[in-house]
Design goal:
The protein is 80% helix and 0% strand. By secondary structure, it is an all-alpha fold. It is elongated, with a radius of gyration of 18 Å.
């Protein structure tokens, strides 16, 4: 899809929502989820950045970033436990 069409569709959707109104609770949930997803990806990036010294590497994708973002430090530890003990090869 062309970028100008995509931007136009988003602009029209925002314009319509300004007049119709939107419930703020789902918007907060989506925003909170997006922030957690980004923070999880950043945490995995930093772990990979400094973990290269110890030979630790965790792929950054939608699944691992969401686990790290929503579960926090226990989620990251679980990801590494699965990576090292369940999938050792």
């Amino acid at each position: 899809m062309e970028p100008i069409v995509l931007v136009s569709i988003i602009g029209v959707a925002v314009f319509i929502l300004m007049f119709v109104g939107v419930s703020l609770k789902p918007v907060k949930w989506i925003g909170n989820g997006a922030i957690r997803l980004v923070l999880g990806a950043v945490a995995l990036f930093l772990i990979n950045l400094f973990g290269n010294l110890a030979g630790i590497h965790m792929p950054i994708n939608l699944f691992t970033a969401s686990i790290a973002g929503f579960l926090g430090i226990p989620g990251v530890l679980m990801l590494f436990a699965v990576h090292f003990f369940v999938l050792p090869f």
